């Protein structure tokens, strides 16, 4: 009886993580759209979601504590619950970064961009994919998907290098571009961090399945 109740609560934990993941995904998507369109209203919506994400984090934390205290969880349950606690910390940071991006977008809203945004939205799409896939991997206990997310961070890092190079070239061409170029570089840096946090989530998923935490090495893959 106790175990079936415990299992029901584990399902509830999964559902809450999916909900938190959806909120994070929505915040990053809104922040990206706001940036592309220089839309202040959308940026404000992304910032407002930060509170909902924080609230969801507290609810999940409370449920995890309840699960840990109510019954002696077996090793796999324990791994799953402790991974969830780590994951929500990273997910909360994702919400913060979406808000950070939106705040810079609001500052830039009145000025035309010094160049057409191309690689920053690509970074955004890549990070949204990473967040979605890492939550999916946790819920489905899909080890290969979690490992794929970790590897996909290379795509985000490569795009960041490209953005940085392009912005440096713009500053060299005309120093008047400097201030906005730095703001755009900051936005790209936040997207890079979003990729890092999504990687962390995926690594905790690997831990929840295998009991091993850390970078996915070639040795593990072989």
Question: What is the compact description of this entry?
Answer:
The chain has 222 residues and is an all-alpha fold. It contains 7 helices and no strands.
Overall description:
The chain is an all-alpha fold and 222 residues long. It has a single domain, classed as Methane Monooxygenase Hydroxylase, Chain G, domain 1 (Up-down Bundle), CATH 1.20.58.220. The chain contains seven helices and no strands.
CATH class assignment: Mainly Alpha
Low-confidence spans: 217-222
Q: Could you name the CATH topology?
A: Methane Monooxygenase Hydroxylase, Chain G, domain 1
Strand % is: under 5%
Radius of gyration: 19 Å
Instruction: Identify the CATH homologous superfamily.
Output: Phosphate transport system protein phou homolog 2, domain 2
* Structure class: mainly alpha
The coarse overall form would be: elongated
The CATH architecture term is Up-down Bundle
Helix tally equals 7
Total count of domains: 1
Features:
disordered C terminus, mainly alpha, single chain, elongated, 7 helices, 222 residues, Methane Monooxygenase Hydroxylase, Chain G, domain 1
Secondary structure layout:
Elements: H1 2-37, H2 40-70, H3 75-108, H4 119-140, H5 143-173, H6 178-210, H7 218-221
């Amino acid at each position: 009886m106790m175990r079936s109740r415990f299992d029901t609560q584990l399902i509830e934990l999964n559902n809450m993580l999916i909900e938190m993941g959806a909120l994070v995904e929505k915040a990053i998507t809104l922040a990206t759209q706001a940036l592309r369109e220089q839309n202040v209203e959308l940026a404000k919506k992304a910032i407002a979601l930060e509170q909902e994400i924080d609230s969801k984090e507290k609810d999940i934390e409370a449920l995890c504590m309840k699960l840990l205290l109510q019954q002696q969880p077996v090793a796999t349950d324990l791994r799953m619950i402790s991974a969830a606690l780590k994951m929500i910390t990273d997910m909360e940071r994702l919400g913060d970064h979406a808000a950070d991006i939106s705040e810079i977008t609001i500052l830039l809203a009145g000025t035309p961009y010094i160049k057409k945004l191309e690689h920053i939205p690509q970074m955004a799409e890549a990070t949204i994919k990473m967040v979605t896939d890492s939550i999916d991997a946790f819920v489905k206990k899909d080890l290969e998907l979690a490992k794929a997310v970790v590897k996909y961070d290379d795509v985000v890092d490569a795009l960041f290098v490209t953005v940085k190079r392009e912005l440096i070239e713009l500053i060299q061409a005309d120093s008047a571009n400097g201030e906005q170029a730095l703001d755009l570089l900051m936005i790209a840096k936040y997207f890079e961090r979003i990729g890092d946090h999504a990687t962390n989530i995926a690594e905790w998923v690997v831990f929840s399945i295998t009991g091993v935490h850390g970078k996915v090495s070639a040795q593990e893959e072989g």
